[in-house]
């Protein structure tokens, strides 16, 4: 099979196409499948974008981004985590997707492998496939909070493995790698002779815990972040990565060649993302996400979905639906047809126990979530 | 060597860093190394971007771009070339870089090879390297207008070769693959059992000839285009690709996974790129580029640079400087130090006769070009 053929489609895309068709026929559809905040980008960021356009900031920037933005991101680590990060280690990218591609490009060769959690964000293993890197999908359960841990590294690491990747908070499970577990993970990967890539793109969207960054535990991790989720800048396609000192040059070189540069206007707009008035808007949104989650969890439990681990971040709940169906993909299709609610079946996140799990995204208002839950209750009774 | 290590740096980047240092010391530097129009994006496009921001168009689009933009691009082929293109075949991308990566991802596997011209745009072979694809660099001379032709395909095609790539107009040579030569090339590649990728990112920047698109000769070519050059939208990071019908699905699937979507605001802005008032501005710029080229060519000849083929497109002149130096990289460094003129040495475009060639970009005004030529004349006499 060619590399393109090994990349499975997102099944939720078929659901989405069907949802759109139903909507065009006048049906009311509630979208709980979308991994994108429902809020538009905060006004101060939008205004900074308009300002940049008025000033005709339309030329290329350096491949690793505007110096000012790299500095502001470094300052952000100082303010938020009391952590000094050299701005030279901050690489601005066209979204976290580009950052991950850069990390894998400099850490692996064709035929190497990486360790990933199953369930996990499917694009990660597919980016690996495009780069001719094998993804070893490690089945994870509630026991490890659906995260890779040091024991997994010891058990699954192969001779050709170069890196392991964790996401904290995670998509689809919303769980976090706790600080001690992250320390152990970093050590285990170092002992194995590889690198740890930590996806922190949902940083800021954390509800019960004090946050930390993996950067505070080691200078040798690759930390991927994004302006899409907490900062609400999805369509702007902007992210960043903090790389170990010794990888600055190779990441720059690959970025020059495969991306040229991240979008200029997005970069100028993002300079406003860390300002105080923006922060206030974003913090109000965090409160709303938390309210949605707190509404959703008990209702799902009451309906018979098993919430095996309470999600502490992102905007997802990943539940065991085995009491309701053992074919979550078909169930999701039927739910859409009969009640007009779109959710993401487990199969989009891997294969391990995928047919008995489903993901709900709380990227809709509590009112809409309530309507959706009424429909689901009616559907399953 | 790991894949990242096989990617050479752009030597011109070292020159640029030195140029910036000299500028910071107060020296006057004339930049003839920059592959980016000196004009800012045309006002109607900028205004459309501002309008999109005011309307808070900040969410993701589909992976292959806004339906409206794909339609407008298809219409563009109808208006400009009297050619019907199904908008489903138009894939909007984060610049031509992303388009090329998609084309190679669906056409090759690790260990395959592609044919490229040497000299040629260096990123193309480096994108191949990142995807674990070997680039077979075919030495090309003035005899074939520095382009691959059917004879090259027959001679250099290997059992593992999957595609050949040409750029028309080309970077660094500004030459064009003429219609009959393109037909022969398409046939030769088909006979070899592979695919032809045609880079048309300098389309519109053509000075003496009537233009055509490779799409008018075959539905089986992959045609890459960009909003960066003719449309002057470099920093917006937006391009497109027209793919054969049978590749629509696989390109979509890879795009979803490795890029998610191209930048939203750039896409809304680009809707204005094909409007009449924009077209008038862009056509005036084409006239200015032509004036610059027509000034530059005879002056370079007089100074002893051999213009082996008159460039008919893009904004580059690639000259044989063997009468002046047999080490164009060192020569470029010395020219920068002594006279403050930055040019790109041949070595950035390949290895074939690279040390006796140099590229001048005419992305500066005629007045600035005149000042640069005075300095160069003084330097070489």
Q: What is the secondary structure topology, with strand pairs?
A:
2 copies of one chain form a homodimer.
Chain A (H helix, E strand, L loop, with lengths): L10 H14 L5 E2 L11 H12 L12 H15 L8 E4 L1 H13 L5 E6 L3 H9 L3 E6 L10 H7 L4 E7 L11 H14 L2 E5 L22 E5 L12 E4 L5 H11 L5 H7 L5 H28 L12 E5 L7 H12 L1 E2 L1 E2 L11 E5 L4 H15 L1
Parallel strand pairs in A: 1-10, 3-4, 3-5, 5-6, 6-7
Antiparallel strand pairs in A: 2-8, 7-8, 9-12, 11-12
Helix pairs in contact in A: 1-11, 2-9, 4-5, 4-8, 6-7, 10-12
Give the structure's gist in a few sentences:
Chain A is α/β, with parallel strands linked by helices and 381 residues long.
Of all protein chain pairs, which has the greatest interface, and how many residues does each chain bring to it?
A-B, 60 and 60 residues
- Radius of gyration computed on alpha carbons of chain A: 20 Å
Order of helices and strands of chain A: HEHHEHEHEHEHEEEHHHEHEEEH
- CATH overall fold name of the largest domain in chain A: Aspartate Aminotransferase, domain 2
The CATH class label of the largest domain in chain A is Alpha Beta
Overall domain count of chain A: 2
Helix content of chain A: 40-55%
Sequence stretches where pLDDT stays below 50 over 5 or more residues of chain A: none
Strand content of chain A: 5-15%
What is the multimeric organization of the chains shown? homodimer
Superfamily (CATH H level) name of the largest domain in chain A: Type I PLP-dependent aspartate aminotransferase-like (Major domain)
Rounded average pLDDT of chain A: 96
